[in-house]
Amino acid sequence: MTTTNPYSEQQKNEILTAWVHGWTISRGTEAAFALAGYGYKIHVGLPGHLERYVLQGQALSAIQLLAHELSIPDTWIKICAPVSEIGALLPPRWTLKPVEYLMCKPITAHVDIDVPGAYTIQFGGDEQAVSIKALGPDGQIAATGRMALTARYAVFDQIVTEPSHRRKGLGRLLMQMLSNHAFARQADTGVLVATEDGYALYSALGWSLCSPMTAAVINS
């Protein structure tokens, strides 16, 4: 993917930091531990995902050193840089995963939101994190999403539409409703990390690319 990136390294680092803190709030993990100014360590503690390291893209020597030191299976790293800059730095025990994208967008309110008649919307959460779900006519979950607030940032997470309910605008609807909530809480910038499929959707919704994200894991 070739595109002009308007973000400086400092801006990328600030956005990445917001995403890290928002992710820990959304997922209910321990707070992230800062790694001497080049990234963060998060204890996740789940099968297949014990620890996660989220790293700034410009710290190539520190990334290479850390990748060689880490050896415990189910350890993940996510690096704010394209795989073309990172792949050769990783020892063979690391398995590269599909590329992801750090994206952001100014938060604005959507006054008029039409919920399809067959669906109902439910909110939950607390002061730091909000969950939302759309229920279908049968009461089953059709789409879900989460958003965490950290400083002036709203971090969107786990926006998922079930296969049988796709192409009905539910993902867009939930994003708009979460944006309204963030706007009311004085957040001015939305942040998320998208998959390859999600990148096209979020781009169509006005989100801009901050940086490709290289992900890798040490397999069991």
Automatic annotation (TrEMBL):
UniProt cross-references to InterPro entries, sorted A to Z: Acyl_CoA_acyltransferase, GNAT_dom
Residue ranges of domain N-acetyltransferase in the record: 91-220
SUPFAM superfamilies: Acyl-CoA N-acyltransferases (Nat)
Pfam families: Acetyltransf_7 (PF13508)
UniProt xrefs under Gene3D superfamilies: 3.40.630.30
CDD domains to which the protein is assigned, alphabetical: NAT_SF
Annotated protein name in UniProt: GNAT family N-acetyltransferase
Organism: Undibacterium hunanense
